[in-house]
Design goal:
heterodimer, A: alpha/beta, Rossmann fold, six-stranded mixed sheet, five-stranded antiparallel sheet, B: mainly alpha, 2 domains, 19 helices
Chain lengths: ~260, ~550
């Protein structure tokens, strides 16, 4: 029985009358590269915010690295890293200052923080502008810095909300390699992305959320088999996604309504 | 083949832009969750209405009086008033305006002429322009009542004067936009702007000291102002009143020339914008320097007495302070104000030199004033965090550490500021007696630490995002301002009761003892409140994140 890194039970979040996340039961094993997919407004970011302590659930429970989040928030936070929506950077610091700030916030000693910050900046190709404020970084540079900050304390679970958006191909390749190595060493990665090709290439397991409900969960092979009916078929993740999310026929735009444009 | 819409007329586009401004205003009100803010806006609206209407009567009375007394040239004074208001008010009021960049209109199919005309029409929708037009109308009515024969000339003057004013105002706005497009310039400009406002306080001491020298110089310069637009407008009316047709034409031509020159410059500015002027926020990347590999610092940690989290927040706050021109400016302002105040009450040229004020009164007064202005930002202490606020909730720390770090930095700034002010006061006026000195210090501890708990609570409950060095949209939350005002009133009231009790009992040491007790209570209350405030922050984290990440 593999160790479970993330487990939610009946996790829900309401905003007034709107149920953004509706009783989801997620289960992600340790060391898995887990892709969390869904159309816009499906509840992905709300789920990630709850799992990382940025949003309180309305009901249900979350267990991360075997600890109940509500009962042990600090212990859980020590073991997770997050690249949140909007990246959460303090943009009037330099990259190095920000990494040192984050390292200290996670309780690392000064020397370790500085060493790791330098190594991460070098790896992310951010070291050549030591005096540039984050506010003056490009979007891609900010993304890389946010990722560096998320891993500086060596988390056991890494939450990434659209990590490759705006990152150039060269850096994206290096990041993917890094993330791959991290999962090999037991780190669990929970990733959301709209680019299905990235998820298909990186993730071993996928969960699909639609209108706040978890509508599918399992390994890529299991999901493909569920659609094509055969194990090892050539069904793409996009086809799987569209067939699950577009089942009720309301999701696909009807082109005939835009005849004036064609 | 897709259908392509035909070109809309300029009037349709102006209507659309006017509708857009109206919608922005309405939607801005709808977003406000605090009704008090809406109430504040209504009060401001009523006050603005009273101000404009009141001045309408004043301009009417002024114009009527000048004309009936046979002094039409003095109308120039009224035109000067309108001219200065029209040009300067938009800069002062930038912080209260609705944020909207006119340049965004460029993505629509506008031709340069339409862009120019919409730009001018947009300028006419400003409060300064609307108020100025109202006052010009009042003056026109006064002219029609006092000397109907001057009405045609007045109408010419008003039209040209309005045209050149709206053009100049848009031109200055457009230049400012270009100048302030870079963050650093914007921050420096903002700091200089505030410093300029503060240095207005220096006018009185300077006039006292250098008045006799400056007066002849001012008299020599004054005639040159006759060729400025407001004076030309006044002179045009004077010429018309004296049936001096040549003078009237010359002055109108002068106004027309101003309008033409401003229009030409504005056309060039708008043309540059139309062509796609680069106003990028981000500086162009410079050549990549070979970076020496950074070594791990072996120097001892100066903040090792603090927990790593508190030390990290203190360091971050210090860096933010030194990089925010506006906040950094608070370091210069208090000693400068102390210098200005003390200059009013001391020195050979002071008008109050014969009745010098005692440091027994001035010292506590100035310290109270410093507490008042320096504590203001504490009531919205997360204002500049932006997206970074999420870091505090993602990291494994209790929120009390964040409060401690932020409050420690504020106390440090206060200590430095008050130390500098104390030195300045001692130099200019001398120190007060020991009972007053100690009572003041204890009162400072009581007022500052006591307010910190309330300020932390206010920061969590009524956060408002502010941008570094940005004038537009710099508004604190209405509730935070109200809480700050209420808290300062309470602490001021308690302090006043203590001081008056000391005087009533004629016990010089009573205030010092009472304030010392209150200070101890305030410090105890502060530490007792930290855990409760951490829980409040956790409960309110969604409000905080939503308000600051917007």
């Amino acid at each position: 029985m593999p160790e479970i890194a993330i487990r939610t039970q009946k996790l829900s979040r309401k905003f007034g009358n709107l149920t953004a996340v509706d009783s989801i039961d997620l289960q992600v094993a340790a060391g898995q590269f887990f892709g969390f997919l869904g159309p816009n407004g499906a509840g992905k970011s709300t789920t990630i915010k709850m799992l990382t302590g940025l949003l309180a659930p309305t009901s249900g429970s979350m267990e991360l690295v075997g600890l109940d989040f509500a009962a042990h928030p600090l212990e859980v936070k020590r073991q997770i890293g997050v690249v949140p929506e909007g990246m959460g950077l303090l943009d009037r610091l330099t990259g190095s200052e920000y990494l040192q700030f984050v390292g200290r916030m996670y309780g690392l000693d000064r020397a370790t923080t500085q060493r790791r910050a330098n190594e991460l900046l070098d790896f992310m190709h951010l070291a050549d502008r030591p005096k540039t404020l984050i506010a003056d970084y490009s979007h891609g540079m900010q993304k890389k810095l946010a990722l560096a900050a998320a891993v500086i304390h060596g988390p056991r679970i890494l939450f990434l909300d659209e990590p490759f958006e705006g990152v150039d191909a060269l850096a994206a390749g290096a990041l993917k390699a890094l993330l791959g190595r991290m999962t090999e060493r037991g780190t669990t990665i929970f990733l959301t992305s709209h680019v299905l090709e990235i998820v298909e290439r990186l993730c071993s397991h996928v969960g699909i959320i639609h209108k706040g409900r978890l509508v599918a969960q399992g390994s890529l092979e299991q999901l493909r088999a569920g659609i094509s009916g055969e194990v090892g078929g050539k069904t793409t993740l996009e086809e799987v996604f569209l067939s699950i999310v577009g089942q009720d026929g309301t999701e696909r735009p009807r082109l005939e309504e835009l005849s004036w444009l064609m | 083949m897709a259908d392509v819409a035909g070109s809309p007329g300029i009037l349709t586009q102006i209507r659309a832009v006017a509708g857009l401004r109206w919608r922005i205003l309405c939607n801005g009100l709808r977003k406000e969750s605090h009704r008090l803010h809406l109430l504040g806006l209504i009060v401001v609206g009523i006050l603005a209405g009273v101000f404009v209407l009141g001045l309408c009567f004043a301009f009417f009375a002024g114009a009527y009086s000048f004309l009936s007394q046979g002094r039409p040239a003095w109308m120039g004074l009224l035109f000067w008033g309108i001219f200065l208001f029209w040009q300067l008010f938009p800069i002062f009021a930038a912080g209260f305006g609705t944020s909207f960049e006119f340049r965004t209109m460029l993505r629509f199919p506008l031709n340069p002429t339409a862009f120019y005309i919409i730009g001018l029409a947009y300028g006419l929708a400003d409060l300064s322009a609307l108020a100025s037009v109202c006052w010009l109308v009042s003056m026109t009515v006064a002219v029609a009542s006092a000397q109907p024969g001057l009405l045609p000339a007045m109408l010419f003057v008003v039209v040209l004067f309005s045209l050149l004013n709206v053009t100049l105002e848009r031109l200055v706005g457009s230049w400012l936009e270009r100048l302030l497009s870079r963050r650093r310039t914007r921050e420096l400009f903002f700091a200089f702007f505030i410093l300029a406002m503060v240095s207005l306080n220096l006018i009185n001491p300077l006039v006292n000291r250098y008045g006799p020298v400056l007066r002849p110089l001012a008299l020599r310069i004054a005639p040159y102002f006759a060729w400025f637009p407001p004076s030309l407008a006044g002179r045009a009316l004077a010429a018309a009143a004296q049936a001096h047709f040549g003078g009237l034409v010359l002055c109108l031509a002068g106004l027309l020339l101003y309008a033409a020159v401003f229009s030409l410059f504005l056309w060039r500015r708008f043309a540059a914008q139309y062509r796609g002027e680069e106003l990028a926020e981000t500086a162009a990347p410079g050549p990549v320097a070979v970076r020496p590999i950074a070594r791990t610092q072996d120097t001892p940690d100066r903040l090792s007495a603090l927990s790593p989290q508190v030390a990290a927040v203190v360091r971050k706050e210090f860096r933010y302070l030194t990089r925010n021109s506006f906040s950094f400016f608070t370091l210069i302002l208090p000693p400068a104000l102390v210098l200005i105040f003390s200059a009013q009450f001391s020195g050979n040229h002071s008008p109050l030199a014969e009745r010098p004020i005692s440091p027994e009164m001035l010292f506590p007064g100035i310290m109270a004033y410093l507490v008042l202005i320096l504590m203001g930002p504490a009531y919205n202490c997360f204002a500049f965090e932006g997206q970074g606020i999420q870091t505090y909730f993602m990291a494994p720390l209790r929120f009390r550490d964040v409060f401690l770090g932020k409050n420690l930095m504020l106390l440090l700034v206060l200590a430095v500021e008050m130390g500098l002010s104390l030195v300045t006061l001692a130099w200019r006026l001398g120190l007060p007696s020991p009972p007053v000195f100690i009572a003041t210090l204890a009162a400072i501890v009581f007022a500052v630490v006591g307010q910190l708990s309330i300020a932390n609570w206010s920061s969590v409950n009524f956060p408002r995002k502010l941008e570094f060095g940005q004038m537009r949209g710099r508004r604190q939350s209405g509730m935070a301002v109200l809480i700050a005002f209420g808290a300062q009133l309470v602490f001021g009231g308690i302090s006043a009761v203590v001081v008056f009790t000391g005087r009533w009992t004629q016990n010089h040491w009573f205030p010092a003892e009472a304030f010392a007790l209150l200070a101890v209570a305030a410090v105890g209350g502060y530490f007792a409140s930290l855990d409760a405030l951490s829980r409040v922050a956790e409960a309110k984290k969604e409000t905080l994140i939503e308000a600051l990440c917007r």
